[in-house]
Amino acid sequence: MLILGIDTSCDDTSAAIVEDGCRIVSNVVSSQNEIHTKYGGIVPELASRRHIEMIWPVVKETMDKAGTNFKDISAIAVTHGPGLIGSLLVGVCFAKSISYSQKIPMVAVNHLEGHMISIFLENTPEFPFIGLVVSGGHTSIYLVEGFGQYTEIGRTRDDAAGEAYDKVAKLLGFGYPGGPIIDKLASEGNPEAIAFPRSTLKESHDFSFSGLKTSVLNYTKKHPDAKKEDIAASFQEAVVDVLVNRVIEVAEIKGVKEVVLSGGVAANSGLRERISQITSEKGMKAYLPSLHLCTDNAAMVAAVGFHLFNRGEVANYSLNPRAYLPLGSADGQP
Hints:
Layout: E1 2-7, E2 13-19, E3 23-30, H1 33-36, H2 44-66, E4 75-81, H3 85-102, E5 106-110, H4 111-117, E6 129-134, E7 139-146, E8 149-155, H5 161-171, H6 178-186, H7 210-222, H8 228-254, E9 258-262, H9 269-281, E10 285-287, H10 291-294, H11 298-310, E11 329-330
Parallel strand pairs: 1-4, 4-5, 6-9, 8-11, 9-10
Antiparallel strand pairs: 1-2, 2-3, 6-7, 7-8
Helix pairs in contact: 2-3, 4-11, 5-6, 5-7, 5-8, 6-8, 7-8, 8-9
């Protein structure tokens, strides 16, 4: 079964064809980094305009690389949230048009579920597992008991981890996206040079990164000559400490032995190294997607679409994008 996946949730235009929910036949991503870099972050209007320009060329390239046509496609899977509403609208409208004109069923995919299930494109973790989705827009921990069975255990109350990376990079005078820049600088600095705070929210598994970001800002003002490598390394150490400690804490409470990381920040070398080390020490196992599957891509959307289609969860043409779209149920969250 071939599923055509389409993702325009943020600033990357992506299309993919995935067979049986686990084998990537083709996966094309058109980045917009060159557009948004000069602004230090994503400009939503510019993002949606570029999606309009690129959606058909990206889908066509995907089909050409796979050597397929629309007659070979069993269903179209499209991200309908969460994300930038203008960007989402482009993908949803395009998917509707193809679905209607080619008479192909369409399924609506939650972008967060796409990140969570992306690991199954390369590995087969056993349910239940603890999943951490950590990116520029999201930082959440889930108990995953099966495909479509998600319970949110904790989430950020302010900035997402990736957003904090971008803002700190901007504070230090660097461009966008900030994550890879800070990660590279951190490898050249001393992570113990500066004692940045680690947020601890009592009686909660939630995250908070706004205080850390403010602490970095205040430190740079008081110490304008401080080594940027040390600031980056100390900042990253604080973020990684909080993420890993929370994940391990939840896994132990739930009695789960497998942990899955996903999202753009899952590509961070410091986070990957630490989670692998700690899980090994505790007799757990960590699953880390390849770097190209950490960032937004349509292959993960197609993978989810396969399971939705098999369950008969087909969308109709009244489908609308949703900027805010929680995943699964909440576990004692406000």
